[in-house]
Design a protein that fits this description.
Layout: H1 2-13, H2 27-33, H3 39-51, H4 58-65, H5 80-102, H6 116-131, H7 142-145, E1 149-150, H8 155-161, H9 163-176, E2 183-186, H10 202-213, E3 218-222, E4 229-230, E5 254-259, H11 266-282, E6 285-289, H12 295-303, E7 305-311, H13 319-327, E8 331-335, H14 344-347, E9 352-355, H15 359-368, H16 371-388, H17 391-402
Parallel strand pairs: 1-2, 2-3, 3-4, 5-6, 5-7, 7-8, 8-9
Helix pairs in contact: 1-5, 1-6, 5-8, 5-9, 11-15, 16-17
Length: 419
């Protein structure tokens, strides 16, 4: 019965180009182009480990101990498949509640999905179902999810449908998870697994953080700004910027630009003032639009800028950060308390990050940089787009992360609070 709910859910999501495993060309040619990691060798290695009942829990423990140092041991359950199916069975009613409301099409910022949370649900459930269909199919969960038992919940849609049902779902999770088993999930909301109330007081923040502590053995993939593993916060895909909008670095008139809303975001208001004041000091041109414009205007301004400001929004990150990267341009992530950057080892070679205090010095540094160095950064961004900044690339990075297979995603300590 549980799969009936998921079949209904997936049929409503309508995802283009994702059908179970990523459709691949010859692996050797893909590797030569840098389009995708060597999934064939990784799958073979994991299957061999599973066949010998060798499931390495140490990477999971290292990740979770960043937040909860006293976690002593986790073990892979002998009944992993049955436990997973039972978990999905008890969560199925909440999946149905969200499906009845949104049919896989919740909208935000003019985009109506499918979101990364939807794609995570569809892709990995389809991958698992494909492995368990057919007479000779492999039926070991660890071959897909490594040491984790996955949790599949449409958190975003359920939270927007019913606060009461969301609270019941969290209670069901707390009662259903085993304390010595490692789980993984992806939540496209701002507070990890917790659905925030419309008006958030300090007491409510503390309560939300307390609830997160009741899930010390759940690794949360977080696009919005909270979780153990930052992942890209993707919206509609953007094509690499081309001529006439994409200019050689030496012909770009603007040091930096930003186009977006300021009225409800105090960080952006302060950022605008700092940038305009520093531009006068440096004697450079900037463009700090106060409203959104048509894509052609935005692309023209971004393509005429050496770097593009990507300040945080309601969460610790923003859609703009990854839109700029998808365009093949250099981002400057501006944050309040801590940066929220997927692929941190990679990012330091393709972008910049600063709080408001460090923004003037960063602008001066960028202004003094050799233009060829900036051009090399953009070349690197363009080479990583398919593998890191598309939905398909992110799903592949998540798969590699779960199987400890060379992903550029990194685990980090859960943030202490939320700003």
């Amino acid at each position: 019965m549980m799969f009936v709910f998921w079949v209904l859910w997936f049929s409503a999501v309508a995802i283009n180009g994702i059908h179970g495993e990523l459709e691949c060309e010859d692996p050797a040619s893909l590797l030569q182009r840098g389009d995708i990691h060597d999934k064939v060798n990784m799958t073979t290695m994991v299957e061999a480990q599973v066949a010998k009942n060798i499931i390495d829990m140490e990477p999971v423990l290292q990740c979770l101990r960043l937040t909860t140092p006293n976690i002593q041991t986790l073990k892979y359950p002998k009944d992993a498949e049955k436990h997973f199916e039972k978990l999905q069975e008890v969560l199925a009613p909440y999946v149905q509640v969200a499906k009845n409301r949104f049919h896989g099409r919740s909208c935000s910022e003019g985009f109506c999905g499918p979101w990364i949370e939807d794609r995570w649900l569809e892709h990995f459930m389809s991958t698992w179902q494909n492995r368990t269909s057919g007479k000779d199919a492999t039926k070991r969960l660890a071959e897909v999810f490594g040491p984790f038992i996955p949790i599949f919940v449409p958190y975003n849609d359920l939270g927007r449908t019913s606060a009461g049902e969301y609270a019941k779902m969290i209670d069901t999770l707390q009662k259903s998870l085993r304390p010595d088993v490692a789980y993984i999930t992806l939540a496209n909301i701002l507070f990890g697994l917790i659905n925030p109330p419309p008006e958030k007081s300090l007491l409510q923040y503390e309560r939300m953080l307390h609830i997160m502590k009741t899930f010390p053995n759940v690794v949360v993939l977080g696009p919005g700004g909270y979780g153990h593993v930052p992942i890209p916060h993707l919206k509609q895909p953007e094509e690499l910027l081309q001529k006439p909008f994409f200019k050689p670095m030496a012909k770009r008139d603007l040091l930096v630009s930003f186009m977006g809303r300021y009225e409800t975001n105090s960080l952006r208001k302060k950022m605008k003032k700092i940038v305009e004041e520093e531009a006068k000091t440096l004697g450079v041109k900037v463009d700090m639009h106060v409203e959104f414009e048509a894509n052609d205007v935005w692309h023209q301004v971004a393509g005429n800028s050496k770097v593009s400001l990507c300040p945080r929004g309601s969460g610790r990150t923003s859609y703009r950060l990854f839109e700029i990267l998808q365009l093949g341009l250099i981002p400057v992530h501006v944050y309040w308390d801590i940066p929220w950057l997927p692929y941190p080892d990679l990012y330091k070679n393709i972008g910049f990050s600063t709080d408001l205090e460090g923004l003037p010095n960063l602008l001066k540094k960028i202004n003094d940089m050799d233009l060829q160095e900036l051009e090399r950064m953009e070349e690197r961004i363009r080479s990583f787009k398919a593998t890191h900044f598309t939905y398909e690339g992110v799903l592949n990075q998540i798969s590699l992360f779960m199987k400890n297979g060379g992903s550029d995603l990194r685990c980090q300590k859960l943030p202490d609070g939320y700003k």
